[in-house]
Amino acid sequence: MITNRTARVLLLPRCRPVRCNRQLYRDFRSSHGVKERQSPPVDGLQANVSGTQLKIVEPTPSSLRPYSSIFHRPKEDHFSENVAKTLCPESFEELLPHIDTFIFDADGVLWLGDEVIPGSPRLIDFLVKNNKRVLMLTNNATKSRALIAEKIARLGYSPELNKDTVVNPAAVIADSLYRAGFAGYKKVYLIGSQGVRDEMDALGLEYFGHGPEPLDPSDERTYVHDVKMEDHTKVGAVVVGYEKHFNVSKLVKAANYLKQPHCLFLATNEDETCPSPDPNLIIPDAGPIVAAVRCASGREPLTIGKPNSPIFDFIRRRWNIDPERTMMIGDRTNTDVKFGRDHGMRTLLVLSGCHQIEDIMENHRNGLLDMVPDFIATCLGALLLPQRKN
Amino acid sequence: MITNRTARVLLLPRCRPVRCNRQLYRDFRSSHGVKERQSPPVDGLQANVSGTQLKIVEPTPSSLRPYSSIFHRPKEDHFSENVAKTLCPESFEELLPHIDTFIFDADGVLWLGDEVIPGSPRLIDFLVKNNKRVLMLTNNATKSRALIAEKIARLGYSPELNKDTVVNPAAVIADSLYRAGFAGYKKVYLIGSQGVRDEMDALGLEYFGHGPEPLDPSDERTYVHDVKMEDHTKVGAVVVGYEKHFNVSKLVKAANYLKQPHCLFLATNEDETCPSPDPNLIIPDAGPIVAAVRCASGREPLTIGKPNSPIFDFIRRRWNIDPERTMMIGDRTNTDVKFGRDHGMRTLLVLSGCHQIEDIMENHRNGLLDMVPDFIATCLGALLLPQRKN
């Protein structure tokens, strides 16, 4: 049941109408898969654990709904302004003098896949014109900052968002290892993509292990025994991120390098899935790969990306930001909002990406206040008055 | 410090001396890798999370000790007979009339790798002669029961231990799906090895997806998008166990079949590592693969193997055992002992495999009483008086 109050909030009555690409948003959300740890409570699904009596459940029209619609169905909550304030052009203008730095997540905030979110470039331009610092912070470590900056420019964003104002875990990992003295001294066993490789190259760090890994295709030996390991005294760290070539042979190597207590274990990020160009396809991100290495090695990684502290420390060190005068803007409560809250920043959730009002309400109900933003808005464009037509 | 009391227990003074292959045991234990979730507390290892200031730590003689010796160093605990009773030939004889069924784990109890544990075949013979039921229960789902039975015979065990008295998760999964009506009706997406395949073949179950999976070797596309999925309405279950060909393409497929709420998610077992012929090499088992699929799909599997209930239900149904008159004998507190305790059986931990007295004491200290056995013994042979020499 959508109450009058909920409906009012969803339509953002205090803001003037904003043209948002709703279909794009819907596709995007359904492409984000499911985060819940429990099997969904679908009528008739019977996996009786105590009796191990499995029953086949025919897909019904309801069980065939996309996952997102099952989990993101409108709740009967009354959305309350006491939970998170809705930002509109007027209230945003009041807030502006109190913020020096705006940190933007990318996917779901600035763009959706390869398409710009209408209104977002204009907000960045507005902030730059008002002498605000703008930074982009993404958990995507598969691309280097240089490649991400190319996309930013291609989509028509202000040149203030560029290679030097973009932060991702690839850059932070390379920086951390460089400052720890790895260059010319220790090697890194890498499960990772172009982003980490290029950022490490830029700092002269030596790494190995990435790329396609041959595996005996026969069934003669059940397990993978015949891995060629490098001298473990020279391997100072195992870095794990998303790599499409990840396989059991790489898992064996990572677990065995990590057997050495002096070998550091760094993970780029632990997002379970990433946005997919096909909204019907779940695309795993680094999370599942990190989970496998964690399980096999029995070691806990130092995870760099949001919502963790290493990437915040990098930002604070580089730009000397004052968290109280900084706003973190993202589309996910569990990464962006939690990251902002955990590090003393103001937080704004835009509804143009992954999480929605019902997710905020659920977090609030469950006492997960570090995943409840200070502010919400439909999208970045909703923070400005519409442009006058000439 | 080994106290007099500890020393007495370790030497099992109430039992007559038993010839145990101690070197074999030591190699075996060190091949089991590490289960702890935290990085080991090695002097000088600095991964300052709040400051992300990593420091290189040179391997020192102490940090180069094999992991097992770091974690399994003798504790200063006084081992108490109140925690677990030591079984010797006399006390075992007293216990015998109260037990009808003995369930044996395999690796570390009956054999170590490819070598029989001296004294174990004789105990099985003794029990068979005394009209006890003997069953073998292993979490190894990579081999079918028929192949496991071949090994049992090759190592000289009583023919009472055979294909029909062996239980493993492969057999239970096939049985469960068969009884659920999958045969000729629903297909199974399988990440698994010969064991699950052969057991499914035997019951006429249809499966697909196993074996080497091609992957575009180029770096042109970062993520794996181009997977060919079967009609999801015909896929009734995803079964995940150890398969050396597991890779990102299989991960994508498993996660996407599991997007359908009607698709069951079964895991053979979740052991992190398995015994390795090379004691210096960690060999991941099914656990890391299940962890990856769990993370990518957001679904919780029904895990069949010890210490979970599905495999117990299978045994109780097939042999109508009385748990109170059944003894579970194994070498691991977290699988064998927990399995026995959770299902109302008596439990015996033999010290000829993975876990030792200090592990029991640690579990006891941490209140993990479901991982503290009723009884301990150095090995199965220690339960019988030595054979008289002619």
Automatic annotation (TrEMBL), chains A, B:
Please give the Pfam families that the UniProt record associates with this protein: Hydrolase_6 (PF13344), Hydrolase_like (PF13242)
Q: What is the lineage of its organism?
A: Eukaryota, Metazoa, Ecdysozoa, Nematoda, Chromadorea
Gene3D superfamilies per the UniProt record, alphabetical: HAD superfamily/HAD-like
Quote the protein name from its UniProt record: Phosphoglycolate phosphatase
Taken from the UniProt entry, a GO cellular component term is: cytoplasm
Keywords carried by this UniProt record: Hydrolase
- Keyword Hydrolase annotated: yes
* GO MF assignments: phosphatase activity
Keyword Isomerase among record annotations: no
Q: What domain of life does the native source organism fall in?
A: Eukaryota
What is the species of this protein? Haemonchus contortus
